[in-house]
Each structure stands twice: as C-alpha cells, then as structure tokens.
Amino acid sequence: MVVTTTLQDTSGSLHSTFATRYVRASLPRFNLPEHSVPKEAAYQIINDELMLDGNPRLNLASFVTTWMEPECDKLMAAAMNKNYVDMDEYPVTTELQNRCVNMIAHLFNAPIGDDETAVGVGTVGSSEAIMLAGLAFKRKWQNKRKAEGKPYDKPNIVTGANVQVCWEKFARYFEVELKEVKLTEGYYVMDPHKAVDMVDENTICVAAILGSTLTGEFEDVKLLNHLLTEKNKETGWDTPIHVDAASGGFIAPFLYPELEWDFRLPLVKSINVSGHKYGLVYAGVGWVVWRNKVDLPEELIFHINYLGADQPTFTLNFSKGSSQIIAQYYQFIRLGFEGYKNIMENCMENTKVLSEGIRKTGQFDIVSKEVGVPLVAFSLKDSSRFTVFDISESLRRFGWIIPAYTMPPDAQHIAVLRVVIREDFGRGLAERLLADIKKVLAELDGHASRTTIAHVTATSSPSGTVIKRSVQETQREFTTYLRRLVERKKTSGVC
Q1: Longest CA span, the chain
Q2: CB-based contacts of 28: which residues, under 8 Å, 6+ apart?
Q3: pLDDT tens for each residue of 26-52
Q4: How far apart are CA 17 and CA 19, in angstroms?
Q5: Contact 138, 204 (CB under 8 A)
Q6: What is the DSSP letter of 321?
Q7: Which helix (H) or strand (E) element contains residue 157?
Q8: Rounded to an integer, what distance in angstroms lies between the CA atom of residue 171 and that of residue 269?
Q9: Summary mean pLDDT of the chain
Q10: What is the rounded end-to-end Cα distance, in angstroms, of the chain?
C-alpha cells in the first residue's frame, strides 16, 4: 500500500471527453458521486485516465512480470472471485498451492523424505514472506533465550546495506535491530567476513541476498555458511541464515545449478522467492519455505474452523485472491525445468547484448556482474557535464522507464542506471533502447557544450572591478536563490 499524499481539493471535478455522450455532469474527485453513471461512462472515464500510465513492457525499473500467455490470463480471470483463504470451499486451489510449495522446496534442495511434505506458504509477495520468516526466527530465538533464563528483548538481524526496504519494514514493525554491513566502492553486496563479525548472542539470523536489487549480484552464501559455522562452534551459538532469493531464486537453479546457496548449506533455515518476478507470474505472489517443521514455531500457526474444516494458516493478511496461486502452478507445469532454463538463458543473452552495447558507447562503466540476475547496472565515467539522473529523465521521452539512484552507505557517492531484463524484453527492444540511449547522450553532450561555451555575464564589484561569470555559474547562483525562497515558504506552510 502507498500512503496517499494527494491534496484533497474537494472542489476538484473529474471530466472525461468521450464519456460525455453518456453523462454530461462532472464527477467529484475525492467524494462519492451522488448519483450512479452508466457502466459505459464509468469504463471510459477510468480508461481515459489510465492512458497516462507508463507502458508496463517498457518499465525496465521493475523485476515484476508484465506478460503471461493468454491461456493463463483466462485461468486468472476465472479465479478472481475465489477467496484463497477459504480452503474448505476451494480445496483444489489449496492443493495447487501445496504442490507449488513442494516444487519450490525440491528446487531449493530441501531435505524432504519420500513420505514428507514441504513446509511453506504462499504470500502476497516477498515482503510478506520475509516478515513471516523473520517472525519465525525471532520467536525461536526468544523461546531459546527464555529457556536459558537470558534477556530476550533486544533481537537483531545482520544484513548488508543493499537489502530491499522490506527488511527495514520488518525491523521497524516488529522491533528488531537491523545491523547493516556498509558497502564500499566496487563491492556492492554484503561482505560475509564483516557480517559474521557483527553477529552477537542477540542475532536471530543473518540475511543473505541472492540477487541484489542494486546490481543483481549473488551474495556468497556458501562462504557465509562456513564462517558462521566456525563462529557458532567458538561461541556455542546457533545463529542461522535466511536467504532472500526474491529475484534470484528462480534463476540460480536453472543457470547455476552447481552454485551452493540453498538448503544444501546446513545453516540455511528458510528461503523466500518472488513468484511475480522470475517465477513469471503477474504481481501478487511470493513464497517462503522452511528447511524443516522445527524451523517454524507451532505457536505462530493459527487454526481456524469457522469457514469449514480445520485450516492452519500463517499469514499477515487473511483474505486474498486465488488467481496468482493458480497462475504459478500453470507456469510450473507449462514450462517445467526445461522451459524455465530456456527463458533464463534467453534473458541472460539479451543482458549481454545490452551490456556490450552500453559499454561500446565509451561513456559508461558496467557495475553489474555477469553471474547474477539478468540486469545491467551502469554508471557514467564522467558526471561533470550531465548525470545519470539527466539520462533517466531524457529516456522517458521515448517511453523508457529506467531508474537512476545512488548506492547505499558507504558507497553513496556512486550513482547508477539499471535496466532489468525480463522475459518480454527481446533483442529488438534491446537494440531500440541502445539507439535511444545514444540519441540522449548526443543531445546531452550538445546541451552541455552549449552551456559551457565562453558566454559570460559581467557584474561590478564594490571596487568597480568587472567580474566575469560563465552562464553555468550564473544559473547555479540563480537556482540557489530560488531554493532559498522555496525554503522560506516551507517554514510558514504545512508539510
């Protein structure tokens, strides 16, 4: 949910050009209309406004799936009226979720016997999955501390400063200290040695990321497991690992099967993954699986029966749609291991094409790595004439949504652009993007050259000496003056 910041001008009205053939009266923006309108008018009003949204296929900021096959779209549409939580009424949907959990657990090499089922749940996304995994770690740690007669009021999690904001949400909402390993220039993931050094008796887990949001890089979970095992032996602790595989969980098993990051490592107790990223489902589904039943405290599971039979549930929310669960199962049986592997290989090939094209411009350094999530993160070699933020803004003219951002502490002086390569980003789009990047670079180069030519303004100093300023200096001075005016206004207004 996004907290609304829209100014509620109650006098504002909503007009629609085409809908006037159905209704001529304007509609209030922030109040419920007094009367009904024809369904055609309601559709046209909303459709007109939505045309101003960006094109999801050109939104290269997002890891979230923006295309699925029409057959899957039909299945999702047919299931929109099913409330997933009503397991007794929709037992087949529940069964499909259980199959998905087991498929994912096997994909991540969970130690499941022939007569055992995996332990896991479907969630709205990886954010909820991380909350649930974090709560399980916190409760297990608290129970152990209570049994030992030790304080249990100051839990902490150790992770890198490159974590997604949902980890900060978990820490703030559930009163857990987040101990972040700072980044350094050229190394934009968590350093396992520094992470283990920060572990103490109050650490409920160390969170590693398989596919950093910033650069797509996989953190070294195997080294982390080794170092943490040694520390646990020295201290007598049993600090576990959680792997946030939101982006990389559906990539590593298909492209890097020999990479040890999952339940093959003894200290990895839980893993989350986003079905709506490289699981290839539209937004609204994530998964969390645990190594064994003992890793999920029973007291966190609720049992309800007022919807029918006894239903165990471990979620932060209650009601939710069934469509994404069904879509995930469709993708699993439709594609199989071979299909996922082919798609991920194709994504990586397109990533290499785009990366090489960006490198050949001669103006960028590639920050992302070859092994990881299929994305290209790149920074300007020279930001004195224009910045990555200028490039990002200019590319919007062509419809491209490409984020520009600074790295977290202590590498915040590095600013990068990032292009996420999804299944629906083909070679043709990659070539089109490269052409548009070159156009933007040429335009910005030309603009920078024009503003730095020896045009000067002259002002007189108190001594009568003429001081020459470049256009750039004059613009900078004027901008500073305007900012001061704005700041003065802010002090007398409401934030």
Answers
A1: 93
A2: 10, 12, 13, 14
A3: 788 889 988 888 898 888 888 888 988
A4: 6
A5: yes
A6: B
A7: strand 156-160
A8: 19
A9: 88
A10: 21
